[in-house]
């Protein structure tokens, strides 16, 4: 971190937040409502999984971790956007920018591994139900979570090591809502093409590799169920639908952002909103509305409130 002191640039201006008062009010209202929905929706899932004994299973343990990660991912950017919209000066310190990037990539890496773990959990539940509880033991679930965090930290730090050594002497303006490696590299006082390639290859390979691994796992599950049930895939589709929806909502924007290194600013901003605000607020709704056990747990919670 001492290399940060060698940088001439001490703060960055976020140009995407410069807008008319009417647009600013609409953005503040939208971001505030979305963040409130993210916080309350994911907090509800966490609360239910922790305190409802009927939900003490591997699937819901992983779901609770995903909810916690969604809150963390949106918290790296959305509150900062709201405060910047309320202030006249839309700036972020260079150190704050680097910290935001590291948190985004760490949490993003954790979420990718958690989604793989949830796909593995569904595979075991559907294809090997008799061995499910033995294989998906508490030790296995804890190992998945530890692996997710280790992967996320290594993924973020491996890219941070390249960027932190670049000289930043100006300009200091980002046409974006937030900081990210590809955007920061463009501000370096050297030709950053090879660094952009390394960052895009790292994040792009991880994103594409994880996405296709998940797709292959779904195909394998569906083929297995199709063979066992004489072509009836209804139950498998119902079981997997929520998870598949979450995967597409998370990975499609990521693939555009990192596989396509320089998307037009308008697309980049819209994809940011999907990944950091829309997806985290939809995840609780998807798992709550499509899951009978979660809905039953909510009803039990309401009954407890009534009797209390």
Task: Compile the SSE list and pairings.
Elements: E1 11-14, H1 21-51, H2 58-75, H3 78-86, E2 91-93, H4 94-127, H5 132-135, H6 138-163, E3 173-174, H7 181-185, H8 193-228, H9 234-259, H10 265-289, H11 292-307
Parallel strand pairs: 1-3
Antiparallel strand pairs: 1-2
Helix pairs in contact: 1-2, 1-3, 1-10, 2-4, 2-10, 4-6, 4-8, 4-9, 6-8, 8-9, 9-10
* Spatial order of strands in the largest sheet: 2-1-3
As an assembly, this protein is: single chain
Question: What is the count of helical runs?
Answer: 11
Q: Count every beta strand, where a strand is a DSSP E run of 2 or more residues.
A: 3
Helix content: over 70%
What is the strand content? under 5%
User: What structural category do the secondary elements indicate?
Assistant: mainly alpha
Looking at CATH, the homologous superfamily is: Rhodopsin 7-helix transmembrane proteins
What is CATH's topology name? Rhopdopsin 7-helix transmembrane proteins
Extract low-pLDDT stretches: 1-6
Overall geometry: globular
Q: How would you sum up this structure in a few lines?
A:
It is built from 11 helices and 3 strands. With 308 residues, the chain is mainly alpha-helical.
